[in-house]
Amino acid sequence: MNRHLSLTALGLFLMSSSASANLIANGSFESGAHVNDSCNYMAVNPGSTALDGWDIGAQVAWGLDVCDGNGGSDGAGFVDLSSFGANSLGEISQALMLDIGTEYTLSFDSQGGAIDVTLNGDELVPTGAPGAGGYMTFTVIFTALETASVLSFANAAPGNPIVFLDNVILTAAPVPVPGALALFASAIGFTAFRRKA
Predict the structure, then answer these.
(1) Is the Cβ–Cβ distance between 147 and 100 less than 8 Å?
(2) Distance (Å, rounded) from C-alpha 1 to C-alpha 9?
(3) What's the rounded Cα separation, in Å, for the pair 109 and 27?
(4) pLDDT 10s digit of each residue in the chain, 197 long?
(5) Residue 108 burial (C-beta neighbours within 10 Å; 0-12, 13-18, 19+)
């Protein structure tokens, strides 16, 4: 019984300290007012609000259940920063509210050409590893220096027929929850007390 209580408290502590929600809206590009321009790709231009959560800096192609054999790494949606293979220097961004001094982890999947990633205009340099379905998964850890922040993704250079982006995830470093710590400490104390008794 004591061991069970300790393990339960430890589990609650670990769950509460490690659970962290994605701070990016529509990071897998699944929602919005999609219109089929060609093969279920949609040209999304600056000023458009079609792609939920994202601002468009330069034209991108938004694919959703496309007919050409391409696809996203997470679900049916993805963005092509080269837009319809026209070598567009496509760019998308999202406004965020961050906590100054907090460490964040950004990850995203990409395929094809290189992507420039910036936070408030400052370059982030992610490292990549092979991912699912021909995508590479890139990750970078940074500490927030400003509250109101803008995260941007852009086609690094023209010349690539595809520059796919998908599965954008931003999470804050887990912070222990005081209630979970107290529960864990009381469970350990209760177990020690029972053993002495």
Answers:
(1) yes
(2) 12
(3) 10
(4) 454 444 444 444 444 444 589 999 999 999 999 999 999 999 999 999 999 999 999 999 999 999 999 999 999 999 999 998 877 899 999 999 999 999 999 999 999 999 999 999 999 999 999 887 789 999 999 999 999 999 999 999 888 889 999 999 999 987 655 554 444 445 445 444 455 55
(5) buried
pTM: 0.80
CB within 8 Å of 87: residues ≥ 6 apart: 158, 159, 160
Which residues, other chains included, contact 75 with Cβ-Cβ below 8 Å and sequence gap of 6+?
Answer: 28, 29, 30, 166
Give the CB-side neighbour count of residue 22, counting CA atoms within 13 A.
11
| Residue type, position 65, single letter | D
Listed residue (60, 72, 149, 154) closest to 113, CA to CA: 154
Element of type H or E holding 44: strand 41-44
Residue type at position 125:
V
Tokens of 60: 């991108």
Burial class (CB in 10 A: 0-12, 13-18, 19+), 14: middle
